[in-house]
C-alpha cells in the first residue's frame, strides 16, 4: 500500500491542481489597445520542428461582451508566412487563414462556445510542408506551406507586436492547456495555471512565455475582487435580480444599482425621499412580478418600488429596535410567497416561519411539523432547484430561544418543505476548531447535493468572510477562495451571498452601519466555480487522505479512458464543419448532425465558405483558381436551380470582352482543368440538356449541399426532419457567403427568402421548444441579421430557458445593428418583444 501511495501521490497532487479552474483570460475590445492581452510563447527564439508536431489548446469565449471579432492565434514562420485562427462574429465562423488565403471556416455556435471549452489543434508537418487544423478531436482542413525543411515558427495568442504581423483585434476569450507534442513525445506544456505575474511556465522545460496584460483565471476563481463600494445615509437593504444580474441597494433618498455584467453602477434619485430606513429592514426582488420589495418584519409591511415614478409605495414608521435581526428570507416559486425564518431581538432567538402573500397582502405564522428547528439567527438560507424546499445552514441560538440559557453555535443543515410545512434534519456539519456563523444566503449548486456559503467568526469585530463548500448529505466541508474583510456587530452589520448565472460569478455583499448615520457597502466578485484552498484542520476527517487517493485513481482512470477514446476516434474525412452532437429535443425527436446526413467524404459545400473535398475527404478547394471556381459555380448553381446554363450566358459573365470564338476556346481550356479536379471528387458529367450545359452527379458519388437544399425548399410541406436537415445544411453560413459575383446576387436573395420563410413558419409551429427556436432563429440571422420576427422568437426562447442575460445581449446587438443600418433607433423595447411586464 505504501508503494502504491508513493507512486500515486504525485499524480494525485497534479490532478488536484489541474481540476481547479485555470487559464489566461484575454482583455479584448472592452479595453483600449495597449491594455489588451498578449501571450508570446516564443519571446526569444522561434521553436523548430523536424517531425510532425501538434500545437493544441483549449479556448472558450467570455459572455456579456459587445464584440467577438479577432485573432485567436497567430503562427508566423521564419520565412514570414502567417497561419491564423480568426473568429468572425458576424458569420459565427472560425476562419483558418494561411498567408492571404482562407483555408477553411468552422461554424461555431456562439452559445456553445460561451458555455463550453473547445479544443483547437494545429498539426505542423515539415515532412510534407503542410499544416492541418483540428477542433474537438476532428481534423478539419489541411493545406500546403512554402517553408524550409525544418519548420521554425513563432507562436502568439491574442495581440502581438511582431513587425509586419501586429494584431490588436482579439475576441474576448480564455485559453488554457497549451500542449506541443512531437508524435507521442511531449515537448512543451503551458497549463497557464499561474496566479499572478507576467510569465507562464513550461512544465517540461521550465521556459518562460511572456504575457502582457494578463488576467489569470486561477486568480479570478480564488481571490475575491472588490468591484463596487458605496456610502449611503440610513440603513440600506440589498436585493438581487438574477434575470438582469443587478444588485439593488435601498437608500433614504436614492436607489443604487450595480450591474454585474460590466461592473457599472448608477444612482437613481428618488422623487420622494424616505424618512426612515429602520435597522433590520431587508429587501428582495420578486421575479414573478418583476418588482423590487423592501420589507420590515416588525411592522409586517412590504413596500414596492415604482420604477417609473421613482417612489416607494409605503413608508416605514418603526422607531424601536427590531426583534428580527439577521432573519433569513426567500420567495418560493412553489406558491410565490415571501418566507421569513428565524431572527433575533430582545434577548430572544426565533424559530418562527412567517409567510407573506403578495397577491392578498396577508401575513401569517406557520406551525411546522417534523424535526425540531432550534431558534437561531446568523444562518444561511437557499432554495432547491424546484423551489419547494428551503435549506437553512447553521447559525447561533439556543434550544429554548432564551439568550441567557446556553446559547451556542449551530452546525446543522435543515430542510423546510413548503409543500408539507415540515422541517427535516439533513446532516450535522463537522464542528470547526474556530467557531463560525453564516452570511444570510447560501447558493445550492444545481444538479448536485452541494452548496456554497460565506462563514465568519462572530466573536470579534474585525472579522472576515470565508467561502465554504458543503453538502446537504454529509458533514464534510471545504474552504474555498481567499477571505473578505468584514466588520461584524450584529445590529450594525449584514452580509449576503448571491450567484450571477449568466456571468457565472459569486457576489459577496458586506454592509456596516456606523454611528454617524451612514452605511458602508462593499461588493466582491469571485468567478464560479471557485477554486479550493488546501484543506484546513477544521475540516479534516479520518480517512480523508485515502479518500483523495481513491479520487485520484478514479480521475486518472477517467483521464486515460478519455485520451484513449479520443486517440481511437476514427477520422471521418467529412467537410470542415463543427458538428453538433445529436440532441434530443422536447418532442423526443433526435436532431441530426451533418455526419448523420451524409456518408460520402466526396462533397461540394456552398453554404458558408465554398469548399470541395475529394474521395479521401481531403480539402482540395485551393486547387480551384478564381476563374475555375466561378466557372464551376456558374454551371453548378444554374444546373440545380434552372436546369442548366447556356454557353451565351456563361461566356457573357466570364469573357464578355472577348469574341464568341475566343470565349469558346477559353471555356474548353478551363473546362479541361476543371475536369481534372472534379474527377478527384466523384463521378459526374457536364452535358447538354437542350441548349444548356448541365452538371449532374452520377451514381450518388458526390454530395452537393445546394442540390439537397433545392430539393428540400421545393417541397410543398416540410416535416420536422426536413427542417432539421435544412438547419444542418445552412447553419454554417449564408449561401456562398464569402464570394461576391454580380450574377450571384439574385440567387442569394432567392436562397435567403426561401430559407427565412420556411424557418419562420416552423418557428411558430414549434414555439414551445425553446432550444430548437434559438437554433432556427440563429440560422435566420445568417441570412437576414435584421429580421425582427427572428429576434422576437429568439429572445422569448432564451427567456424561457432562463438565459435572460443572453436574451438582453441578443436584443442589444440587434438594436445596435439596426441603428447602424437605418440611422435611427429600433422602436420596440426589450420588454415589448419578450412580452414581459
Structure characterization notes:
- By secondary structure, the chain is an alpha+beta fold.
- It is built from 15 helices and 51 strands.
- Strands 2, 3, 5, 6, 7, 8, 12, 15 and 16 form a 9-stranded antiparallel β-sheet that branches. Strands 1, 4, 9, 10, 11, 13, 14 and 17 form an 8-stranded antiparallel β-sheet that branches. Strands 33, 34, 35, 36, 37 and 38 form a 6-stranded mixed β-sheet that branches.
- Helix 6 crosses helix 8 (660-678) and helix 13 (788-800) packs antiparallel against helix 14.
- The chain is elongated, with a radius of gyration of 31 Å.
Q: Regions with pLDDT < 50 over 5+ consecutive residues?
A: 1-18, 534-550, 558-599
Termini separation comes to 65 Å
Biggest sheet statistics? 9 strands, antiparallel
The total beta strand count reads 51
Amino acid at each position: 500500500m505504501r508503494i502504491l501511495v508513493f507512486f500515486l501521490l504525485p499524480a494525485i497532487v497534479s490532478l488536484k491542481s489541474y481540476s481547479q479552474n485555470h487559464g489566461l483570460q484575454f482583455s479584448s475590445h472592452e479595453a483600449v489597445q495597449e491594455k489588451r492581452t498578449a501571450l508570446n510563447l516564443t519571446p526569444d527564439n522561434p521553436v523548430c520542428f523536424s517531425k510532425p508536431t501538434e500545437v493544441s489548446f483549449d479556448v472558450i469565449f467570455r459572455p456579456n461582451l459587445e464584440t467577438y471579432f479577432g485573432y485567436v492565434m497567430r503562427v508566423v514562420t521564419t520565412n514570414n508566412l502567417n497561419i491564423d485562427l480568426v473568429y468572425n462574429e458576424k458569420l459565427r465562423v472560425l476562419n483558418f487563414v494561411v498567408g492571404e488565403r482562407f483555408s477553411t471556416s468552422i461554424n461555431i455556435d456562439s452559445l456553445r462556445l460561451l458555455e463550453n471549452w473547445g479544443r483547437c489543434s494545429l498539426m505542423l508537418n515539415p515532412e510534407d510542408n503542410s499544416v492541418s487544423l483540428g477542433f474537438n478531436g476532428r481534423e478539419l482542413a489541411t493545406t500546403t506551406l512554402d517553408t524550409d525543411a525544418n519548420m521554425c515558427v513563432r507562436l502568439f495568442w491574442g495581440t502581438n507586436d511582431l513587425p509586419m504581423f501586429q494584431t490588436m483585434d482579439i475576441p474576448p476569450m480564455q485559453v488554457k492547456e497549451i500542449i506541443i507534442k512531437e508524435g507521442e513525445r511531449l515537448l512543451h506544456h503551458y497549463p497557464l495555471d499561474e496566479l499572478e505575474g507576467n510569465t507562464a511556465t513550461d512544465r517540461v522545460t521550465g521556459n518562460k512565455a511572456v504575457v502582457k496584460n494578463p488576467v489569470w483565471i486561477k486568480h479570478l476563481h480564488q481571490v475575491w475582487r472588490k468591484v463596487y463600494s458605496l456610502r449611503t445615509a440610513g440603513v440600506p437593504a440589498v436585493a438581487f435580480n438574477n434575470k438582469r444580474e443587478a444588485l439593488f441597494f435601498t437608500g433614504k433618498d436614492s436607489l443604487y444599482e450595480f450591474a454585474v455584467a460590466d461592473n457599472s453602477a448608477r444612482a437613481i434619485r428618488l422623487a420622494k425621499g424616505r424618512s426612515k430606513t429602520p435597522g433590520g429592514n431587508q429587501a428582495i426582488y420578486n421575479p414573478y412580478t418583476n418588482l423590487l420589495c423592501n420589507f420590515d418584519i416588525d411592522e409586517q409591511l412590504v413596500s414596492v418600488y415604482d420604477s417609473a415614478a421613482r417612489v416607494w409605495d409605503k413608508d416605514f414608521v418603526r422607531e424601536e429596535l427590531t426583534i428580527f435581526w439577521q432573519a433569513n428570507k426567500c420567495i418560493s416559486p412553489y406558491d410565490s410567497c415571501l418566507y421569513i425564518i428565524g431572527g433575533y431581538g430582545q434577548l430572544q432567538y426565533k424559530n418562527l416561519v412567517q409567510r407573506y402573500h403578495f397577491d392578498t397582502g396577508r401575513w401569517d405564522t406557520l406551525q411546522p411539523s417534523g424535526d425540531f428547528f432550534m431558534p437561531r439567527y446568523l444562518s444561511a438560507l437557499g432554495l432547491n432547484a424546484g423551489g419547494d424546499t428551503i435549506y437553512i445552514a447553521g447559525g447561533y441560538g439556543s434550544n429554548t430561544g432564551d439568550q441567557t440559557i446556553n446559547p451556542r453555535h449551530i452546525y446543522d443543515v435543515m430542510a423546510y418543505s413548503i409543500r408539507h410545512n415540515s422541517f427535516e434534519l439533513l446532516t450535522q456539519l463537522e464542528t470547526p476548531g474556530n467557531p463560525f456563523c453564516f452570511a444570510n444566503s447560501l447558493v445550492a449548486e444545481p444538479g448536485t447535493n452541494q452548496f456554497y456559503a460565506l462563514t465568519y467568526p462572530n466573536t470579534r469585530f474585525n472579522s472576515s468572510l470565508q467561502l465554504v463548500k458543503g453538502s446537504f448529505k454529509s458533514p464534510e466541508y471545504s474552504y474555498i477562495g481567499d477571505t473578505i474583510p468584514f466588520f461584524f456587530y450584529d445590529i450594525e452589520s449584514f452580509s449576503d451571498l448571491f450567484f450571477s448565472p449568466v456571468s457565472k460569478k459569486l457576489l459577496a455583499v458586506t454592509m456596516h452601519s456606523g454611528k454617524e448615520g451612514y452605511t458602508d457597502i462593499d461588493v466582491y466578485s469571485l468567478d464560479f466555480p471557485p477554486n479550493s484552498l488546501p484543506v484546513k484542520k477544521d475540516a479534516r476527517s479520518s480517512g480523508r487522505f485515502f479518500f483523495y487517493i481513491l479520487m485520484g485513481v478514479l480521475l486518472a482512470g477517467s483521464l486515460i479512458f478519455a485520451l484513449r477514446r479520443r486517440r481511437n476516434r476514427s477520422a471521418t474525412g467529412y467537410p470542415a464543419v463543427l458538428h453538433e452532437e445529436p440532441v434530443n429535443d422536447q418532442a423526443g425527436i433526435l436532431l441530426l448532425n451533418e455526419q448523420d446526413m451524409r456518408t460520402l467524404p466526396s462533397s461540394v459545400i456552398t453554404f458558408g465558405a465554398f469548399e470541395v473535398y475529394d474521395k479521401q475527404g481531403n480539402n482540395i478547394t485551393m486547387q480551384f483558381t478564381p476563374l475555375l471556381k466561378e466557372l464551376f459555380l456558374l454551371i453548378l448553381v444554374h444546373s440545380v436551380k434552372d436546369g442548366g446554363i447556356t454557353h451565351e450566358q456563361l461566356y457573357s459573365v466570364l469573357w464578355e470582352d472577348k469574341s464568341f470564338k475566343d470565349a469558346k476556346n477559353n471555356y474548353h481550356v478551363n473546362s479541361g482543368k476543371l475536369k481534372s479536379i472534379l474527377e478527384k471528387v466523384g463521378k459526374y458529367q457536364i452535358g447538354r440538356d437542350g441548349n444548356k450545359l448541365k452538371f449532374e452527379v452520377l451514381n450518388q458519388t458526390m454530395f452537393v449541399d445546394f442540390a439537397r437544399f433545392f430539393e428540400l425548399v421545393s417541397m410543398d410541406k416540410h416535416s420536422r426532419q426536413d427542417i432539421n436537415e435544412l438547419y444542418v445544411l445552412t447553419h454554417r453560413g449564408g449561401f456562398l457567403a464569402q464570394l461576391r459575383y454580380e450574377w450571384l446576387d439574385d440567387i442569394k436573395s432567392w436562397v435567403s427568402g426561401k430559407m427565412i420563410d420556411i424557418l419562420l413558419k416552423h418557428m411558430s409551429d414549434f414555439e414551445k421548444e425553446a432550444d430548437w427556436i434559438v437554433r432556427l432563429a440563429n440560422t435566420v440571422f445568417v441570412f437576414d441579421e435584421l429580421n425582427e420576427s427572428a429576434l422576437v422568437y429568439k429572445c422569448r426562447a432564451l427567456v424561457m430557458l432562463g438565459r435572460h442575460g443572453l436574451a438582453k445581449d441578443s436584443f442589444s446587438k440587434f438594436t445596435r445593428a439596426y441603428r447602424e443600418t437605418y440611422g435611427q433607433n429600433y422602436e420596440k423595447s426589450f420588454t415589448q418583444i419578450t412580452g414581459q411586464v
